[in-house]
User: Fold this.
Amino acid sequence: MLYREAGDFKTSYAADSQTFPIKFDRWRYWVVLAVAWLVIPFFINDYWANAILVPFLIYAIAAIGLNILTGYCGQVSLGTGGFMAVGAYSVYKLMTSFPDVSILIHVVLAGFITAAVGAAFGLPSLRIKGFYLAVATLAAQFFLVWLFNKVPWFYNYSASGQISAPERFIGNIAVTGAETTPWAQYLICLFFVTLCALLARNLTRGSLGRQWMAIRDMDIAAEIIGVDPLKAKLTAFAVSSFFIGIAGALFFAVYLGAVEVGEAFGIQKSFLVLFMCIIGGLGSIFGSFAGAAFLVLLPVALKVLGVDILGWPSSTVAHLQLVAVGGLIMFFLIKEPHGLAQLWRVAKEKLRMWPFPY
Amino acid sequence: MSADFLYGVEVVINGLMSGVLYALVALGFVLIFKASGIFNYAQGVMALFAALTLVGVMEGQVPFSHIINATFGTDIHHFGWHVPALLAIALTLVVMIAFAWMVHTFVFKHLVGQEPIILFMATIGLAYFLEGIGDLMWGSDIKTLDIGIPQGGSMWVENISVHLGGEDFYGFFIDKLDITASIVAAILVIGLIVFAQYTKQGRAMRAVADDHQAALSVGISLNFIWILVWSLAGMVALVAGVMWGAKSGVQFSLSLIALKALPVLMLGGFTSIPGAIVGGLIIGVGEKLFEFMIGPMVGGATENWFAYVLALIFLVFRPQGLFGERIIERV
Assistant:
């Protein structure tokens, strides 16, 4: 009844080409935004912020980034962890070198730096395809992590080799450092998530996004109809790395506060973000959110179930979590290779027909 | 001959030896990739799992003892017997074959005809799953694996080579374990080639690798061949796991050698068994030499990334690897 195009007449071109053509979707979108911006900040506490909401928002940005590269442009990347590290270390260097500039600008700049690095590592993609490229991006992953470990300039010659975020304020509200309140952490992440999701959604709807998808579906055919593979692939790498860099910067500055590069941005992180994209659904912005939510919630749920209810030792539960994640990935690939986003699409299709499916 | 040059030679020889171990893992990849087009990321974890199972069987550990103890409040760890090494290896092989059957029946049978990238993701899932299961079954502590392979530097090699250099040269240091590993790997490769060339199943395997549908139409059971290939890969994983486990203990880092096998494969080409071996040797020697010559200048630990960068640069010039089949794209 509620979910259909019928009766929703578009009277201008702008209305015709809007992001959500169905009224119900538009309302849902505004309701979600309103709840996220106006309701949750008043109820958030430390546990919810640190265990669930902040990592969810940050991983959602990273997953959107990887989804642009892998889901929309078809270039598999295993270098996400390395690119997140680039974002984290650039925001650290910027924060310590220019302490007077607002952190918001620093985070965006870190995104641009990561975009440049990503585009550089994307160059081989013009020649190398498929698996070979996936393995080639591992070079980025290992090389970047090694670089940040070995060159003391990157961690300002600190004795431990760690980087830790200095205190920074927006207005007079602390957003990084020890004094940060959960709602401030949450809101700054939400700000960037909203921005990134809007940007990604519109990029993928536009000419650039169509070029990416043409390259993904068949690169030679795309080249023949006039898509420039150099431009399409490198922009995909750059835009994807931009998002991943922002995610890395927030992950370090807002969420963790202090990181050791091999631990926080290792190869496991690359796989985690890739899993979010697969489980959520490749080639879908909603899927990135769904996948991030799923993989952030799963360990928490397993921990509550295993440690708190069944009383197992936490190491056993950690192993069980590996089994669950691995098993779920195989299950999803067999049953629904297009991920949670596909379930949502099917549900919407059903809704459109309801209550008279013929 | 100067001592520096001789040290360089020693580095090369040790690089060759570690290259053999990379090649062993890469071999398992190639077997599965040729026959089914599945790029098996889980190969390294299979090596870890095989080694864990071997240790567990030899020591008579109770599988899943942690969960059992935590759930029922019992305190059991071992059955209290020790299984001789050869019998334990045979039992582990049985486990690996059962594993191959399960992987095929429950996962990859349902994914036939999917895009290669989906299959690759599924093997990453499999790797996580298997790693978790391995830890749950046998515990995650570092275990020592001792099935009677000689270890330590070979005095024989040192005594022969000591005369080559001047006074400050003490001969080549080569681990006996590495020599054993090379011999075992050589036997394994010869065995696999003989199997593929001269047996009925081997011929069927090559037919499937050439063309699935043609093989199916002459009456070859694809299911059987795929299980066979996974079992063979399990066997190779067991050998790699034993060698690597004896060298540095059975622990999680064992599964990371799978990642090292990836650049090896890229160099050698995904579809070539000789390529896997040559690629392994090049990577082994290359990263040791680079660490020896350039490493001290840039802060060391270059082994982490050198292999990938080498493979990356190499691929830009020859996208199909050294021995890979030429990539022909059709629209």
Observations:
- Chain B touches chain A through 51 residues (CB under 8 Å).
- The CA atoms of residues 26 and 288 of chain B lie 18 Å apart.
